[in-house]
Amino acid sequence: MRDFSTDISALALNTATLGHNLDGYGQGWPVERVIDACAERGIGGIVFWRREIGDRAVEIGNRVRAAGLEVAGLCRTPYLTGRDAPDTLDEARASIDMAAALGTGVLTIVTGGTEPGTKGLLESQKVLADKLAVLAPYAAGRGVNLALEPLNPMFGGNRTCIMTVDDALSVCDRVGADNVGIAVDVYHVWWDTRLAAQCQRARGRILGYHLCDWREDTRDMLLDRAMMGDGVADLRAIRRAVEDAGYTGPAEVEIFSSRDWWQRDPGKVLDTVVERFRTVC
Ligand code: ZN
User: Fold this and answer.
1) Is there a contact between 269 and 26 (Cβ–Cβ < 8 Å)?
2) Which of 60, 68, 128, 164 has the largest CB neighbor count within 10 A?
């Protein structure tokens, strides 16, 4: 395993950690201030959300690199399955274009839920694979990889049709494109005692690793993620599973926390992120 205690170059900030992904949350730091604050602390990369970028993708990407960081990813495509996704391929293509303009090679996909008129997951996974088969070559032509993120099963129904690494890999297999892989997020996989074996199956296809922690008493499904070290996820074991499968990319801190971290000073949040990254991740 990599030694994060002495080298934090793999640390990437997902800007959701500062509340930037939802209107009315966080302290409203502009993108430039976030970039500078990350650079000052030696953070190696930043992952943005589309709403922050607008039509400034090239400018922001260049700004990040000028500060010595990389754009480690972009969140995310629109839903591709479920009741809210009858016709989102054009928007998905636009999100691929945005990732390319930012200069990042990773675009995260949260799939969307169960297809209207179907039961269970398999029919929805087929629809997902068909849409990915359309998007994958478009993304490949722009140097963008698509990272399918399995979600915690509590998000089944309306947000996802893949809930385990195995689910995500089965969809990847069905698509069969070199630039379609998976993202492993602690919040979504911490409960899975068979994670290590699934990561072995994912060798060469892990495109992202997302860090936070799981609160023993979660108060909100979506917006109550814990800072690393404050919960019950076995962070070292999860990272070992991912790195034993050959993953050497960014470790992206992604903490949605409306009741706690989003209410704090962003500079202090970043200081805590760095300290926990060195000591408990
Ligand atoms: Zn994630």
Assistant:
1) no
2) 128
Contacts of residue 169, defined as CB under 8 A and 6 or more positions apart, other chains included, come to: 182, 198, 201, 202, 205
Give the DSSP H/E element, type plus range, for residue 199.
helix 195-201
| 75 Cα: distance to centroid of ligand 1 (angstroms) | 9
Interval between CA 68 and ligand 1 midpoint (Å): 24
Nearest to 3 by CA among 200, 204, 243: 243
Is 90 exceeded by the pLDDT of residue 27? no
- Residue 109 Cα to ligand 1 midpoint, Å, equals 9
* DSSP character at residue 180: E
- Ligand 1: centre distance to CA 174 (Å): 23
Burial 13-38 (b: 16+ CB within 10 A, else e): bbbbbbbbbeeebbeebebeebbebb
In the reported structure, the alpha carbon of residue 228 is separated from the centroid of ligand 1 by a whole-number distance in angstroms of: 14
Q: Please answer whether residues 2 and 10 qualify as being in contact, where contact means their C-beta atoms are separated by less than 8 angstroms.
A: yes
Peptide bond just before 76 cis, omega within 30 deg: yes
Q: Ligand 1 centroid vs 133 CA: distance in angstroms? A: 22
Residue pLDDT, tens place only, 105-116: 999 999 999 999
Ligand 1 centroid vs 186 CA: distance in angstroms?
8
Q: H or E element: which one contains 135?
A: helix 122-140
The mean pLDDT of the chain is 96
Ligand 1 centre to CA of 262 (Å) is: 17
- Report CA(184)–ligand 1 centroid distance (Å): 7
Judge whether 238 and 218 are in contact, CB under 8 Å.
no
Distance from C-alpha of 240 to C-alpha of 68, rounded to nearest angstrom? 28
